[in-house]
Amino acid sequence: MENKELEQKLRQEAGALLEQGKVDYIVGYEAGSLKFSTTPLITRDRDEVSRLVINPFIVNNLANFLTGLEGKVGIVVKGCDSRSIVSLIQDNKVSRDNVVILGVPCPGLIDLGKIEKLLGKERDELDDVVREGDRVVVTAGGESSEFSPAQVLFDSCLGCELPTPQEYDLLLGEATAPLKEKTASQAKIAELKDMTPGERWEFWKGEFSNCIRCYACRNVCPACFCNRCFVEESSPQWVQPAPRWQDNLLFQAVRNIHVAGRCTDCGACERACPVNIPLRSLSREMYDIVGELFQFKPGMDKDADPLMTHYEQEEAEDLIR
Amino acid sequence: MSQDSDWEPKLLGFCCRWCSYAGADLAGTSRQKYPANIRIIRIPCSGRIDPLFILKALRLGFDGVLVSGCHPGDCHYQTGNYRARRKMAITKKFLEYIGVEPERVQASWVSASEGGKFTQVVSEVTEDLRKIGPNRLFEDGE
Asked: S-S: A88 plus which of A94, A108, A172, A188, CB 3.0-4.6 Å?
């Protein structure tokens, strides 16, 4: 189904949900202020649903808003976002009865940064970027260029295991298959694993020297739902407020450990980072660690125990004296 | 550096108050000698450990951290040590990935009757740390 058709259907359904009083809010995407960009739309107004959009630039994970809204919420989700909702249900942060999930199969989000690099053009110089089957067609200055998804999708999308939401009330459009570009999706991690521990530490030290600790990564993350984050504690003060690399790295390392088993590798943190730290190379590795050690896949089964409340009598003993 | 010649590893121990802390006590009352390199913080259960404590200890300059709790099946609160085990497992693997030497973060099961094992674990961990040298992870480098 074309995006335009999808949008029409979505607006219709979302409007009906509000009209019939089945939901108090609709959470979706609308066009953003920058070219191609989208921004979250949270509304109770029937007329505003006409602003809803679906396109390959819906980068936010809207599950993030569920923990802050009271009442029933109709929410637009991609595959990864639906996993985040399942994870929130596992943690009792969200009741399944209070969400109406409007699933949108997602063939992958387009990384404008990659296109800018490939074409040597700014996003404002691009006229159109569309997904046509297994090609991405970019028109700029009257010329059109074609790329494969592996060239221009976000790394997180290349390795996506669940492009079509598994948990939904209504699925808009047809299911889409995973791209299975796992190697490309984790190229950075493979590169890091080839280094010595000392080199890896130096790498992260360098990356986190750029961090301004804006907490965008934390704030866009549906798995980071604590009312009070340890970084804001003042007694004891776990991290200094000044963004020095030491505390930046400590913050991000602890954040990743805290969301282990909840992080679905949606990649929202990396997309939100204003200084382009490859955050997914931390979160994806943690995703694989919990998979390897405990055969746990975050956000797949809403009736499963959360990772950290479950245990087996015998596991991980080789790591303990 | 001249300071390094008399450098001694500084080890922070988090011991469960029901077992390992009592194990450390037993080692002491039995007049066993274990390295004075360890500083012990008593925690109510190994399940109380937050990986944040471990990172913070390394950030403050401890050369290593040892978390010690009851053997599987022996937790005073039934399941605390199983949860600790999951947390320690992912923390160890993750820290290793970002570049922390695996020797710096260790875990052990020591019961209240295992004064000898406590002595042995602390000695071994201290030796491990001596081998890998001082923790310079969070130093500025200039």
From this structure: A94
